[in-house]
Design a protein that fits this description.
Layout lengths: L3 E4 H22 L8 H11 L7 H20 L4 H23 L8 H23 L7 H13 L3 H24 L7 H24 E4 L12
Parallel strand pairs: 1-2
Length: about 230
């Protein structure tokens, strides 16, 4: 069977949109967002007690900007690709806000519907991450941090990813305890996502690579994202 062409630039756009809806569906389900989204979501819930002016997407790209600054400090230099990564973070934040608005009217009262929303969030996030795997355009700050940190210090990228996720989880737990004296925004869904996310991403990636051949529509642009 001849594979269809899937342009990597389109994969980048779809990754941002899909991950935005993944976060929105998880928040709507109410079982707990992923460890990656948990710090921003926790801060967002706290700010909602005072104002609704600051959106979840805004908080997310501000935190990703901080992550990029920390990365530059750790590796001892700032690359142009880090700036592109922040642009991706801003787009991702806007996508989250759009997705939250788009699904605002979706019912989430019943446990069955919440389960459907949560499962949908897992698929959306897995598809988004898989698309990011197949594009040369700078990823969001979290993926960039893991990649660059592991490369700079000669660490295993999978172990670095695990350590990064655990760090975000600890930060989220601390924020929850300080802000609420308990847990809001993280829960069983956060644990389930951590356990199955890798498996779902691998499955989605396998399906995509079985049916599509990823090619660059503008191959000359790739060099600008490697600096």
């Amino acid at each position: 069977m001849k594979k269809k062409t899937f342009y990597t630039e389109i994969a980048y756009v779809l990754a941002i949109i899909s991950l935005g809806f993944g976060v929105a569906f998880a928040a709507k389900a109410g079982f707990g967002v992923s460890m990656i989204a948990a710090p921003a979501y926790t801060i967002h819930l706290k700010l909602l007690e005072m104002t609704s002016a600051v959106t979840l997407g805004t908080i997310e790209y501000i935190l990703q900007g901080i992550v990029i600054v920390l990365l530059a400090l750790f590796v001892g230099k700032f690359k142009i690709s880090y700036l592109f990564s922040f642009v991706t973070a801003v787009f991702s934040g806007l996508a989250i806000d759009f997705a939250i608005w788009a699904i605002a009217a979706v019912p989430s009262e019943s446990i069955v519907m919440r389960g459907v929303l949560f499962f949908t969030s897992l698929i959306c996030c897995a598809f988004g991450v898989s698309c990011f795997f197949h594009t040369y355009v700078a990823p969001a700050a979290h993926e960039l941090f893991v990649k660059e940190f592991a490369k700079r210090f000669g660490k295993d990228i999978n172990k670095t990813k695990s350590a990064y996720d655990i760090t975000l989880c600890i930060i989220s737990i601390i924020l929850n305890l300080v802000f609420f004296g308990g847990f809001k925004g993280i829960g069983l869904g956060t644990v389930v996502t951590a356990l199955v996310n890798g498996l779902i991403i691998a499955k989605v990636t396998m399906i995509l690579e079985k049916h599509f051949e990823f090619k660059d529509a503008f191959p000359k642009l790739e060099k600008y994202f490697e600096k």
